[in-house]
Design goal:
Length: 88
Amino acid sequence: MRKIIIALGLVAAFGGTALASEKCSVAMADWQPREALQTKLEGEGWKVRSIKTEDGCYEAYAINAEGQKVEAYFNPQTFQSVDMKIED
């Protein structure tokens, strides 16, 4: 019983903090493969340099169709854009 109480305390202390800082809150089981995001972006004229996971989202480093270097965040389930930073 004591172990259960300690475990619940740890989840309450750290679990809420992790969720609050994430840009996307999608269960891993609902994520589409990153290759599908790359295919979608390349179909829109992007040149993808890399895609990684950050803050619960896919983070793509790429050159967009307008020729701008971007750091873009996408919802891993819908591939909807969540945030984008244009680099100088």
